[in-house]
């Protein structure tokens, strides 16, 4: 007898929930069973517009969905300032939690969310989609290959996009009472995660923010960067912005090899993603061209990365529901490390670009 699909409820009708709703519909082991908004009409219209099953329940408040015994897990795309309240309540109602990033306003809040999940035996995962693309596993394999890449020396990551005037005035990411982190939380989160993957999730020792970040009139970050340092001499830098042309780059340099990725967050093609690697690169004899050029590696997938994320989340939930397994803790650990670096960058900005030491 095959196991039933994991029943996922969507808590909030943010724009990103359109993409994740499609992903849940595509995942072979999950289905949407409910949606909630602060307005029943809004939730109903959202369900109709996004191909929800006719059996999906529609709620005009979040509490009703979280109390529904038929809901196994929830996807929560609420503003960051609301995560603590609603994520903890979801865990207390024994709902496995797929939480939108950034996960919290600070690591202290995240620790409360993680503790609620752990004490109630529910799976936690954040919605960093690109990590679940099979290309990311291939990238990690190259970075961990001593023969091809060697030891990591430096990483540079960049995620920028040119937001329009409407976005810069009204989007929740530029409102201090809603998301508060601005481009650092929205775009910088991805850069920090890329750096952590390249460093095999070893946290840097210190962080210092770049001078002259751009803030809006409410003090929310629109453009910023930072440098991260490890005790063994490794260094990483990143830049994130709502004010520059669309760019999604990673460059990682090792003692033997180099990695370049130009679309690391959202691949150019939905079901095909590439990256470039070079090992012991060199020039020709006259130094007029490269004798050993980087090579292109392409990874294909049957499902888009967001559906792969949902598939893995639902698999873990299924292991707990049907096999009495324990929640996989690594995802909470990875989210916490990302939050710690984000907090350190923000602290450095607020302290006049002082060096901030990261304490686990």
From TrEMBL:
Ranges of residues in domain GFO/IDH/MocA-like oxidoreductase: 145-259
GO MF annotation terms: nucleotide binding
UniProt-listed SUPFAM superfamilies: Glyceraldehyde-3-phosphate dehydrogenase-like, C-terminal domain, NAD(P)-binding Rossmann-fold domains
Entries under Gene3D superfamilies matching the protein: Dihydrodipicolinate Reductase, domain 2, NAD(P)-binding Rossmann-like Domain
Coiled coil: none
Domain (Gfo/Idh/MocA-like oxidoreductase N-terminal): residue spans on this chain: 6-125
Entry similarity comment: Belongs to the Gfo/Idh/MocA family.
Protein name as it appears in the record: Gfo/Idh/MocA-like oxidoreductase N-terminal domain-containing protein
Organism: Vicia faba
């Amino acid at each position: 007898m095959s196991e039933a699909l994991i029943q996922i409820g969507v808590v909030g009708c943010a724009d990103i929930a359109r993409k994740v709703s499609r992903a849940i519909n595509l995942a072979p082991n999950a289905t949407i069973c409910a949606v909630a908004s602060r307005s029943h009409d809004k939730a109903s219209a959202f369900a109709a517009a996004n191909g929800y099953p006719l059996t999906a329940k529609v709620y005009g408040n979040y509490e009703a969905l979280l109390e529904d015994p038929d809901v196994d897990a929830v996807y929560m795309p609420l503003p960051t300032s609301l995560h603590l309240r609603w994520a903890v309540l979801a865990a207390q109602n024994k709902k496995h939690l797929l939480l939108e990033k950034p996960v919290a306003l600070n690591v202290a809040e995240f620790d409360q969310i993680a503790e609620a999940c752990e004490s109630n035996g529910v799976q936690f995962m954040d919605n960093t989609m690109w990590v679940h693309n099979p290309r990311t596993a291939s990238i990690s394999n190259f970075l961990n290959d001593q023969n091809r890449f060697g030891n990591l020396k430096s990483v540079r990551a960049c995620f920028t996009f040119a937001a329009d005037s409407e976005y810069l005035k009204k989007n929740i990411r530029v409102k201090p009472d809603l998301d508060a982190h601005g481009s650092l939380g929205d775009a910088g989160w991805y850069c920090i995660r890329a750096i952590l993957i390249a460093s095999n999730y070893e946290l840097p020792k210190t962080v210092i923010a770049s001078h002259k970040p751009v803030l809006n009139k409410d003090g929310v970050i629109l453009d910023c960067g930072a440098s991260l340092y490890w005790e063994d001499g490794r260094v990483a830098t990143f830049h994130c912005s709502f004010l520059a042309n669309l760019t999604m780059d990673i460059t990682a340099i090792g003692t033997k090899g180099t990695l370049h990725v130009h679309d690391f967050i959202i691949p150019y093609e939905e079901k095909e993603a590439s990256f470039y690697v070079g090992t012991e690169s060199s020039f020709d004899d006259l130094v007029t061209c490269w004798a050993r050029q980087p090579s292109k590696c392409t990874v294909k997938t049957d499902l888009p990365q967001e559906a792969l994320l949902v598939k893995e989340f639902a698999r873990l939930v299924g292991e707990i529901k049907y096999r009495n397994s324990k929640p996989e803790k690594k995802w909470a650990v990875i989210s916490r490390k990302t939050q710690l670096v984000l907090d350190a960058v923000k602290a450095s900005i607020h302290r006049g670009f002082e060096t901030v030491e990261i304490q686990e």
